[in-house]
User: Fold this.
Amino acid sequence: MIRAFLVSVFLLLSINSIIAQKGDSYYPGIKAKSAVEFKELHYNFGVMSEGSDVVHTFDFKNISKEEIHIREVTTSCGCTTPTYSNDPIKPHRKGKITAKYDSSRIGRYKKSLSVLLSDNETIELIIEGEIVKK
Assistant:
């Protein structure tokens, strides 16, 4: 009985150390470290007037050892338009994603941009604020 218990503990510890050596996260589908580092993931425009330019650029850096590229950027609604380059981003180089919100829509908003990278990592960026009549 004790022998079976010790064998079980040994197997669990062995599997845990193998996973740790690979650098994988304990949770499936979640990477232990991102390939990119964003300066910020959330931006609040505050209060803006109707018809004004509501545009923000999210800057990031490729902190991996391989080239990456942005496969696509999807938004939570058609009121937000993303702009980004399809060119590969070399290691330790910078990139950017620009989000433009339609300021003809009066009221508070909170919108997301889902960034899909070439390594299948998805990063969520958030913009929010309030549009008031002129």
The CA atoms of residues 36 and 62 lie 5 Å apart. The first strand starts at residue 36 and ends at 38. The beta strands are 36-38, 42-49, 54-62, 70-75, 80-84, 94-101, 107-117, 122-132. The chain has two domains: 1-30, 33-132.
